[in-house]
Specification:
The chain is α+β, with helices and mostly antiparallel strands. The chain contains four helices and five strands. It has a five-stranded mixed β-sheet, sandwiched between helices.
């Protein structure tokens, strides 16, 4: 017998708070120390207060199980970058990332942003296809590196 449950029922997308550090460390950024997660979270909250960024978490029953960062371009206020889109392993493939992107996009629109940008490695075809499903299109850009 198989039963299917809608995990998005208890899902809330909200602004990150310093109280999210522990669950973000556990579920989204386990390779970083708790102190590193706290430091980055504090920095992002300060940036939110200045209007430079918007960090959201996917909350299920009080636990931050997903994260997204929206950074506003200082030179061009019509552009924002999306980064740190992370969903805890067991919930990948659910609608959590979709909801995070949806709310981040809405937040960008409310801030008069016209273009969202997101980066991916060319070799990560599955991820690129997901981004395309959200309306992103590939741009011809070449990044060159020099190892020192």
């Amino acid at each position: 017998m198989e039963q299917v449950f809608d995990i998005t029922t208890g899902l809330k997308i909200r602004k990150a708070s310093i109280d999210d550090a522990s669950s973000l460390h556990t579920y989204c950024f386990p390779s970083e120390t708790l102190e590193e997660v706290e430091k980055k979270l504090k920095r992002d909250i300060e940036r939110m207060d200045r209007g430079d960024a918007y960090r959201l978490v996917a909350d299920i029953n009080g636990y931050a199980v997903g994260n997204i960062l929206l950074e506003f371009d200082k030179k061009n206020k019509k552009v924002a970058q999306v980064s740190q889109l992370v969903v805890t392993g067991p919930l990948r493939g659910s609608l959590v990332a979709d909801k995070l992107m949806e709310v981040a996009s809405d937040s960008a629109k409310q801030n008069n942003v016209e273009i969202l940008q997101i980066e991916a490695n060319r070799s990560d075809g599955k991820l690129i296809e997901k981004y395309k499903s959200w309306g992103f299109v590939e741009k011809e850009i070449i990044i060159l590196e020099k190892k020192l």
